[in-house]
Specification:
- Its EC number is 2.1.3.2.
- This protein has 341 residues and is an alpha/beta fold.
- It has helices at 35-53, 76-87, 110-121, 135-143, 161-175, 193-205, 223-230, 267-273, 315-334, and strands spanning 65-70, 91-95, 125-130, 150-155, 182-186, 210-214, 235-239, 251-254, 292-294.
- The two termini are 26 Å apart.
Length: 341
């Protein structure tokens, strides 16, 4: 047999390349201690953007394996993680619909599923999306026994840390800065996990950031979250309308009302609030010249399709940021902050 058949193709990572992300699970924005950590990740994302946009080839993860376990429906997050890993050269095993088409239907626990994913694939990284708030923490404790990091791709209504990173990266690319910002978050702030992660990340980048939370009263951000984030930022304003703050906002972050997270028996409440906040073409006229309208998607009808072609609309470009950030994050976790020849 050829000697190369048994060669270890995994990369040696020198100490100077071992950033705070290296070799660790990434389950919460709270793990990030400084803006320098974020900026370092963004440097790597810039490299990934240049490689992708120039149709270049950079495959340092040949010999590595990535497992996706998605218990909740996903299009953008699942596709971008899969594409990110494959563009870097990794083997990828995707299991969408875990709640319907796996041993979960037989009663298997998340802990045992993580054992199975580590043992049956021999892969180096697991990307997990799950309906429970603390699912990634539970999974990370099991996966750590095998030396396999977990990336949280969305956990319940609590966290979506990679979405926050790609959102902030979008802001940096399109607005040109991550400080001295006024950011208005609109829609479902009660169940929406993206706004919680992004607000915390904005606070890390600039403790003087101004936040406006605009939502129907029934979908206001949880009181404990508002209390916590208020201690980290310059100001927090809560309101049940969005027009007043629209002319002052640098970033308008829209979200849909998430029907799937409403408790059973609250269909009437959902029907009452789902159409209260809709962004229409005429609202663009109220925005600052260089401000942007973001949305983590999917949308239902909360942003009119007539807005799509306007330069303020950033939500499609926002999706591309997800590819670059997730490539960069996998790279930092498995290979550190270095370019592998």
């Amino acid at each position: 047999m050829a000697a190369g058949l048994f060669a270890d193709r995994r990369v040696s990572v020198p100490p100077e390349a071992q950033t705070s992300f290296f070799g660790r699970s990434f389950i919460s924005v709270d793990q990030i201690q400084s803006s320098n950590e974020v900026n370092q990740l963004f440097e790597m994302a810039d490299v990934m953007a240049k490689v992708t946009e120039s149709n270049g080839v950079y495959r340092p993860l040949v010999g590595y394996g990535v497992t996706e376990l998605f218990y909740e429906a996903s299009t953008r997050t699942s596709l971008s993680f899969e594409a990110a890993a494959k563009r870097l050269g990794a083997k990828v095993h995707v299991r969408d619909g875990m709640g319907m088409f796996s041993s979960v239907t037989k009663g298997e626990s998340l802990q045992d599923t993580i054992h199975a994913a580590c043992q049956t694939t021999g892969n180096d990284l697991i990307v997990l999306r799950h309906k429970e708030d603390r699912s990634s923490e539970v999974a990370a404790k099991i996966a750590a026994r095998y030396g396999v990091p977990i990336i949280n791709a969305g956990s319940g209504s609590l966290e979506h840390p990679t979405q926050a990173l790609l959102d902030l990266y979008t802001i940096k690319r399109l607005v040109g800065r991550t400080e001295r910002l006024k950011v208005m978050m609109v829609g479902d702030l009660l169940y929406g996990r993206t706004i919680k992660s992004l607000a915390k990340l904005l606070a890390i980048m600039d403790p003087q950031v101004e936040l406006v939370f605009a939502s129907p009263q029934e979908l206001a951000a949880p009181a404990d979250f508002v209390e916590d984030i208020s201690s980290r930022v310059g100001s927090v304003e809560e309101t049940d309308e969005f027009l007043s703050a629209l002319p002052e906002a640098d970033v308008v972050y829209w979200t849909r009302v998430q029907k799937e997270r409403f408790p059973l028996g609250q269909e009437e409440l959902y029907d009452r609030v789902k159409d209260q906040f809709i962004f229409r073409r005429e609202h663009i006229e109220l925005m600052k010249e260089h401000s942007i309208l973001m949305h983590p998607l999917p949308r239902v009808n909360e942003i009119d399709y007539a807005v799509d072609k306007d330069p303020h609309g950033a939500y499609f470009r926002q999706m591309r940021s997800g590819l670059y950030i997730r490539m960069a994050l996998m790279h930092e976790i498995l290979l550190g902050h270095q370019i592998v020849a």
